[in-house]
């Protein structure tokens, strides 16, 4: 039997009928009326106009309804805070990210995690994919987010989302006038590449080899940010994650080119040591990354090329 006169009163007011309220609260009609009457007797007042053909609040009833709602909301908030307190996760977490994820996605993930788990101390490290993988293997990092292939049997791997790589060229570049590029258009160009060990570099090298592209000259930069700036300045062309250039594309500071018959994608991964004991903090972070709606938002943004 439901025995909370305050919530019974609020339900009656909002449903405007004793019978509907009784059904919703799994009470008899007399049971609902009895709870309302007990409140009225306690305050020596009437909540409803007895002369009305339908439920109509008196002035006293309107005042009581306003404060009853506030009390119920405060009760719910108190219960939620107590529940969160009993389930509080605390400790420390060392999280790594390869450059693309570390600079453009990891901050969102850490911020979201900190909101739900304020008791956790978080330290982040950003490096290229191979360096982050080795740090995980050496137990220098608890968990990491990387792009590129991970081929180590001592690492547990979870695919978290798809990343699209696109060809970007300076606005003044001859290729910028093309609606779509072929592999022939990419011959004898100046390329801006990431350093060895980068997931983006490995992807670029693989495609350049598969397409039989002759690279006239290349310049190597140690971060996606530097590659982007070099392309914008007119130094050459580059294959990059759409994540790192979405603002520049929206601002028309550089041009992206579709490649005929190709949509270039790769996976982003969450990785952790396979033999390392999983802590409660690690489990909470993994659960957020793999199951949170933020991943859905990232996927939509990646497909559409939109900015936050």
From TrEMBL:
Gene3D superfamilies: 3.40.190.290, Winged helix-like DNA-binding domain superfamily/Winged helix DNA-binding domain (1.10.10.10). PROSITE patterns: HTH_LYSR. Residues 6-58 form the HTH lysR-type domain. Keywords: DNA-binding, Transcription, Transcription regulation. It holds the Pfam family LysR_substrate. Signal peptide: none annotated. One of its GO terms (molecular function) is DNA-binding transcription factor activity. Belongs to the LysR transcriptional regulatory family. This is Transcriptional regulator. It comes from Desulfosporosinus acidiphilus (strain DSM 22704 / JCM 16185 / SJ4).
